[in-house]
Model the fold of this input.
Amino acid sequence: MNAYQKLSAEFYDIDKPTAQPEALEFYLDYARRSVGPILEPMCGTGRFLLPMLAAGLDIEGVDLSDEMLSLCRARGRALGLSPVLHTQSLTALSLARRFGLVFIPSSSFCLLTDESVVEASLEKLRDAMLPGATFVVEVERLVPRPSETSGTWGGRWVERPDGAKILISWLPQYSSVEGIGRSIHRYELVKDGRLLESEYEEFALKFYEPAAFQALLERAGFADVRVFKPYEATSPDDSDEGLIFEARRR
Done:
């Protein structure tokens, strides 16, 4: 997995400044019921973490991208908040305390595509949790995907407060054998008709069958695994492309 770089992090921050209200309320409900502190791995720019911190909850964040965490700190300062953040990969996760709730929203966990990295990350997350603690994670479901989505350029842009635009262009490829979608992302900063900066990023997402992801959780030391529709306490159906898993640390 590539860490978000300068332009990609800034694009993400402008494009997704806040969490969807139903998603935020879903995770806030878990956070309010947590017995022990809360950890959000892969927290990005803090669209879930900062509202929880503002609500008085004891929460820390982890991300591999210094750029994303820098934007999170800046957003926190604007709100009068000082979030506790750590620049770490999940496979090297090492924190001073253990947590009563660990949650990873928005399918960020699917950015880990190597099976050994996925397994090691789940084990590290388990080790960071208190006995009986809750783990909640959102993943993308493996569903049939049209072949014409591969090899076709797409793109759009966002506008910064200074009038400059950050353009993203992407060229996707999907492997049905691996259940992985890969894209080359090109970011370009343009102002007054001039290209000021550009960067490239390799982006990949892993898609899961529900039973396969449940098996991963159980092998990593989690029990009482349940799966839901996104942001609802009901069982998913075949139309749901996203899934939310809840599990307990043994």
User: Anything to note?
Assistant: The CA atoms of residues 46 and 72 lie 5 Å apart.
